[in-house]
Design a protein that fits this description.
23% helix, alpha/beta, single chain, two-stranded antiparallel sheet, Spore Coat Polysaccharide Biosynthesis Protein SpsA, Chain A, 10-stranded mixed sheet
Amino acid sequence: MKAMILAAGLGTRLQPLTDSKPKALLEINGVSLLEMAIRRVAGAGIRDIVINVHHFAGQVIDFLHKADSFGLNIMISDESDLLLDTGGALKKAAHFFNGEEDFLIHNVDVLTDLNINELIIDHQRSGARATLAVRERPTSRNLLIDQSGQLCGWEYPEKHLRVLNRDSIRGLRPVAFSCIYLLSTKLFEKMPEDQVFGLMPWLLSLCGQEGIRTWEHPAGFWYEAGRPESLAQAEKKLFFDPDSPVYIFEKRV
C-alpha cells in the first residue's frame, strides 16, 4: 500500500509562526509535524509516500533531502503554482497510485495514537470505496453517520447548516472526522473535472451511490496542531520514541 501526506496548507491560523516556514515544518519538542506523520505512516509498514507542497515548498523539499527521505520512497506533488484543496491534491497525485487498489491519506497536522494498521485491515475487509477514521469528540463540524457507520451527511450546528445525501435515513449520529482515511483508486474516475475541489463535498456527493463508511477508533489522544494553542498543548502532552513503530505517545501524569 502507498500513502499521501497532505502538507500543502498555508497554515494561516498559525501565523506568525508560518510567516517564514510551512506548517509541515513547525516543531513539537524538536520534531517537525512532517517527520511525525512520515514516521507514523512508515510504522504501519508503508514505504511509498507522496507529499504535496505549496507554501514554502522548497523548505519541505530541502528537509526531506537532508533527512535522506527517512530511508523511504518519497515523492513530491508540487502545487507551488496553485493550491488545489484536498480533492484536487488527490487528483493531481493519482498517477502515483497506479496499480494500487487502495491508498492511505494522512493530514500533516494530525497527532494521534490511532492504530493505522487496524484502520487498513477494517477497510480491506469491508470492500468499501472509502473508510474515514472518526471518533466522538467536540468539534464545530460533524459528520453524520447511520447505525451501520455509513456516511450520510454533514452538519455545522453553529451556523444551523445540515446536508444529507442519503434517502430514508434514521438514527443519525454525529461524529468527528479524524483526518486519516483510506480511498479506493476506483474513486478517481468519480472525481469532478474541476482542478480545485474539496474532499468532503466530493465524498458527500458520492455517499448516496458509493460505499463511504466510517471506522471509529478507540479512545486515545487526537490533536490537530492547526493553531498556536494546540501546538503548545501538544508540546506539553506528547513525547516521541524513534525506536517504536507507534512513535507518538502521550505523557501520563
